[in-house]
Amino acid sequence: MTVCEYRPGLEGVPATQSSISFVDGQQGILEYRGIRIEELAQKSTFLETAYLLIWGGLPTKQELEAFEHEIRYHRRLKYRVRDMMKCFPESGHPMDALQACAAALGLFYSKRALDNPTYIQDAVVRLLAKIPTMVAAFQLMRKGNDPVQPRDDLDYSANFLYMLNEQEPDPLAARIFDICLTLHAEHTINASTFSAMVTASTLTDPYAVIASAVGTLAGPLHGGANEEVITMLQEIGTVENVRPYVEACIQQKSKIMGFGHRVYKVKDPRATILQRLAEQLFDKFGQDEYYEIALEMEQAVEEKLGHKGIYPNVDFYSGLVYRKLGIPVDLFTPVFAIARVAGWLAHWKEQLGENRIFRPTQVYTGVRNQVYTPLAERPQIWDKQAVTIQSIVN
Ligand code: ACO
């Protein structure tokens, strides 16, 4: 075995072999199972793309209809899940609510049979079907309303917007939302997918796998950035303030939200599509007050940081699309999660196919061979900087 150097953030370290998606960060290429994201965005639907990712190939007409039918049938939540949600504080973040609900599904479907294809199929269907209902239900319940029941005559994306906004969406809005889900469905071994794979490798249940991925997606350096982008555009307020804001970030070495990516060193291809989708929505439903600021920001960041490969990532324009669709800012990341469940499930299935538990090594930097000091002989106040307590837990 070769001993490798320590790479912070595991940058460039292959953690698995995978045939699910491919990214070329220099050329701005993203493919799911070999198909370019631009083509899927234009021609596919989210559920068909989810099928492609999870089962490895495009479905036949019959397979797709059966998959859609099953998902429709499983959209409802058990009343006990809804009762549990009633106890959540309305001030809590919807990502925390979603993580708790995803984990709770494991209580209801606790018989684990990872070697049974029917069990795998059922878990895939349940998670894809119920996660959107959970997000919409939490939104209504925190406003003091009853959740809206799913409508069987509406497709996946139209039904979600209906449950969220309590009215049937415009067809263009529903189609654009569906494309957003396709764009966010999968993206190689990012932080939340890695989290899902590590959890999956212990052979725990799929609900725990998705719950751990949701928790990881929530952070502002990952999925949570879409929310932070809108807060940033709000704070900047005017086009004139953009360049001073960018300058200040560079001076203070703080990160500009929605820019930069570990893999892409050019504009993220999903950001290009999302920008176009935002413009389609503005044409039909009116301009967004932040769009001019966003455009100026992209230009200013490119001028100042383009040489470092810092360009808009997927989170930069998605918020502007979601705002136009009537989605509240703190639901942007849960909406990301609705889509990414497809990719997480694909990696869960792939992990089970050739499983070995993840157990990396570390470079130990602590002290060794220390003597245990009895409590009575220790100084009254520990200097926490000077003392390293060696963990005995492996
Ligand atoms: N704004 C300003 N400078 C940046 C940014 C940014 N958003 N991103 C990277 N840089 C600079 C860094 O300061 C660093 O410069 P230096 O070499 O002179 O020190 C260089 O680019 C490399 O940055 P790292 O932080 O080492 O890059 P890393 O690959 O670790 O981070 C990350 C990638 C976390 C996405 C980072 O770009 C970032 O924090 N962006 C803002 C948050 C964001 O939008 N996250 C969403 C990412 S997409 C997703 O997860 C779905």
Summary of the model, kept short:
By secondary structure, the chain is mainly alpha-helical.
Q: What would you give as the CATH superfamily of the largest domain?
A: Citrate Synthase, domain 1
Using only C-alpha atoms, the radius of gyration works out to: 23 Å
Total number of beta strands: 3
What's the CATH C level of the largest domain? Mainly Alpha
Can you give a write-up of this model?
54% of the residues lie in helices and 3% in strands. The chain has two domains: 8-223 and 322-353, Citrate Synthase, domain 1, CATH 1.10.580.10; 226-320, Orthogonal Bundle (Cytochrome p450-Terp, domain 2), CATH 1.10.230. Residues 388-394 have low confidence and may be disordered. With 394 residues, it is mainly alpha-helical. Acetyl coenzyme *A is lined by residues 9, 190, 221-223, 225, 255-262, 305, 308, 310, 313-315.
Summarize the helices and strands and which ones pair or pack.
Layout: E1 21-24, E2 29-32, E3 35-36, H1 37-43, H2 46-55, H3 61-73, H4 79-86, H5 94-108, H6 117-142, H7 156-165, H8 171-184, H9 191-200, H10 206-217, H11 225-236, H12 242-252, H13 269-285, H14 291-305, H15 314-324, H16 332-353
Antiparallel strand pairs: 1-2, 2-3
This protein binds acetyl coenzyme *A (ACO).
Keywords:
394 residues, mainly alpha, Citrate Synthase, domain 1, Cytochrome p450-Terp, domain 2, 2 domains, three-stranded antiparallel beta sheet, 54% helix, disordered C terminus, binds acetyl coenzyme *A
